[in-house]
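ok posting inputs for the EPZ job
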Amino acid sequence: MDKLLIVGGKPLRGTVQISGAKNSAVALIPAAILAESTVILDNLPELSDVAIYSEILTEFGAVVERKGDQMIIDPSSMRSVPMPNGNVKKLRASYYLMGALLGRFGEAVIGLPGGCNFEPRPIDQHIKGFEALGAQVSNEGGAIHIRAKELRGAKVYLDVVSVGATINLMLAAARAKGVTIIENAAKEPEIIDVATLLNSMGARIIGGGTETIRIEGVDSLHGCRHSIIPDRIQAATYMIAAAATRGDVVVDNVIPKHLEAITAKMLEMGIGIEEMDESIRIIGRPDYDPVDVRALVYPGFATDIQSPMCSLLTQANGTSILTDYVFSGRFKYIPELIRMGANIKLEGRSAIITGGQLSAADVQATDLRAGAALVVAGLTIPDGITTITGVEYIDRGYDRLVDNLAGLGAEIWRE
Ligand code: EPZ
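and the output
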């Protein structure tokens, strides 16, 4: 099993380029199933989740070619085959196959998704939406069976604001008969990215990025070329790592608007920030103020960044409170930070963090962003070697993490 080793204490300096967004890529790849000719995706990140998704599409009969950061998907020869097991169980976002296969073939059998299981993650809102469009859904032996004679547009009110359910319903509704309205939709930038791709394929979707999305179904969709938006979570992780090491880093190829919640919190802590058109410069300072952070749906502070943020808050002078209103139990990394000497108490869905120096330890990443939190923590520790296992989680979502950090002057390597 691979591990990451870090000798920290060196301020990060230089420029890091941010790749395309994982959470867009894993929705855009299945969205290509809905087309009847070739879809080209540019700015694709180099991630294990992306590699698994391309294998899954091949198993359905698509022809998938990878050229650098480009993926060329020819879905014309695809067929709908039941996929109760295998690769679909390796990643959470395989749930998008349900909406995409349903939209193209009127049926799908997909094993319940795996992925980062930091807490139970229900998909009842996805299913409620498919049923509203006229599909019959059953759970047989751990696989979801979905079938519809004809998908018909409908009004769907999501009881919880869900990124996955919003995207899945857009996929299923794009080729349905009539108009679908999704109310209480999620507004994350990745949703706009999927709507943009679908519209370039000939779909009629308006309101992506707002709480009401209107989808007028069309008979068929065609191929197109689309460039994936930058990964705001990777970007925020490097911003946090730069600040935590008191470095000076330009995070390049970002959309600063997508990072407003994190830049606001960093400014509140006293971190120097310069915003350019497509980059953000982080200027570390010796002392940081404690802050209270609430992870919320977009445009609030992203739950995906609360774990690395927790590591940054261990560097503040005083006590901060970090609360996750999206996933109440996304705190499995905290015992590992405590093993590194952090002073953190968990109370319900809040972590109470009192700043202080951390110390090197052997720790285990329990999910993707937990891994990022441990890397940030390790980068702050000058004495000893921090060893992180569970690297396979980090590979799911961080494109060339070790090379990028080493390029900024960090002493980090993989064994
Ligand atoms: C997406 O997960 C992301 N994954 C997650 O990224 C991210 O943490 C999450 O959105 C929130 O931003 C992908 O895009 C592939 P949700 P998703 O449905 O869509 C509840 C990462 O580290 N809920 O928006 O699965 C749910 O339990 C990750 O990159 C229901 O109750 O999240 C949660 O409390 C991991 N029923 C809340 O809604 C449902 O049917 C939001 O979840 C669906 C969700």
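notes: Residues 275 and 281 are 6 Å apart (CA to CA). Residues 23, 26, 92-93, 116, 121-126, 160, 162-165, 186, 303-304, 326-327, 368-369, 397 surround EPZ (CB under 6 Å).
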